[in-house]
Amino acid sequence: MAAQNDFSIPIPENKPIDEGFDYSQRGQWLRAAVLGANDGLVSVASLMMGIGAIKHDVKAMILTGFAGLVAGACSMAIGEFVSVSSQLDIEVSQMKRNVVSNEESEVKKMPNPMQAAAASAVAFTFGAIVPLLAASFIVNHKVRLVVVVAAVTFALAVFGWLGAFLGRTHVVKSCLRVLVGGWMAMAITFGLTKLIGSSGL
C-alpha cells in the first residue's frame, strides 16, 4: 500500500530516488561491437603487414586485406550466431524449467542470434576497412607500411576511447590495452613472415 503525505497524495513505496543507467546491459552489444571492430582492424592490418614484409606489390597487399575482410566477417558472424544461439537455448530451457517447477522467472529480453551475428560482421568490416583504405593510395612500399601502422594506431585509440566512453570505464587503460595488442599483432606477423620469407620457404 502506498504511503500518504499531508495532502493525501499517494507516494509510491520502494522506488529509488536516483535510478542510474545499468551499463552492464549495454555491455552485451558493446562487447560484440568492440570485439568485432578491433578484430577486423588488427587481423586485416596484420595480414597486410605480413604480406607487405615480403612483397612490395600494392595489389597483393590489398587483395590479401580484402580476403581477410570477407573471411573474417563471415567467421565473426557465424561464431557470434552459434554462441548467442547456444545462450538462447540455455535461457529458454531454464525458463521452461522455472515454469514447470512453478518458480517465478524474471521477464527479460532474450538474446537475438541474428542481430548479434549482423552486428559482429558489420563491426568487423568497419574495422577492416581502415587499413585497406590507408594502403590503397600509397605507391611507395615503405611509406605504405608506415601509413597503415599510423592509421591502425589512430583507429585503435578511437575504438579504445569509444569502448571506455560507452561503458564508463578507464579511458587510458582501455586505449593502452588495444594499442599494445594491435602493435604486437602487427609486429609479430611482420617479423615472422619476413623471417620465413627470407629463409626461402
UniProtKB/TrEMBL annotation:
A Gene Ontology annotation in the biological process aspect, one of them, is: intracellular manganese ion homeostasis
- One term under GO cellular component: vacuolar membrane
Entry's family note = Belongs to the CCC1 family.
Is this entry keyworded Acetylation? no
Q: How does it sit in the membrane?
A: Multi-pass membrane protein
Record keywords: Ion transport, Iron, Iron transport, Membrane, Transmembrane, Transmembrane helix, Transport, Vacuole
Protein name as catalogued: Vacuolar iron transporter
Catalysed conversion reaction: Fe(2+)(in) = Fe(2+)(out)
What is the purpose of this protein?
Vacuolar Fe(2+) uptake transporter.
In its UniProt entry, the species of origin is given as Deinandra increscens subsp. villosa
Lineage summary: Eukaryota, Viridiplantae, Streptophyta, Embryophyta, Tracheophyta
Q: Keyword Membrane, does the record have it?
A: yes
